[in-house]
Design goal:
about 45% strand; globular
């Protein structure tokens, strides 16, 4: 029987990875594609829009994503589905979350410094530079 070491994990420095077999491990946080079938729980201290890649759209093709605002405030923008429509936006305050639908392009903008948490399957995650023409 394998046992997990009993020690604290710094959630601002590492992510938790949950495998399909129920194993949980702490390891370096990766914001790009990771192992298929492995869920990532990542917590971030953010100061500026640069910390949340506000100038990029992000999309997770294999699962929904929970974007959680632990402290501070953040706006989650969703890319228009039709070219003639505008971005949808959800305002998050401390203690709230939004579920980003699978395959939906989204981006974040901060209201100020805070702590965020994301939960998703990162496998296949894509980033795309935001342009004003979209």
């Amino acid at each position: 029987m394998t046992t997990t070491p009993l020690s604290p994990v710094d959630l601002l420095a590492a992510a938790l990875y949950i495998g399909p077999d129920g194993d949980v491990r702490a390891a370096e946080r990766r914001m790009t594609s990771s192992d298929s079938g492995v869920w990532q729980i990542a917590t971030f201290h953010v100061e500026t829009d640069a910390d949340v890649h506000a100038d990029h759209w992000e999309m997770h093709p294999e699962a929904e994503e929970a974007v959680c605002c632990l402290t501070g405030g953040v706006r989650v923008y969703f890319r228009p589905v039709r070219p003639d429509s505008v971005e949808d936006m959800v305002q998050l305050r401390a203690g709230t979350a939004v579920i980003v639908p699978r395959g939906r392009w989204h981006r974040l903008e901060l209201d100020g410094p805070g702590n965020l948490m994301s939960i998703t399957l990162r496998h296949g995650t894509r980033l795309e530079k935001r342009t004003e023409a979209r």
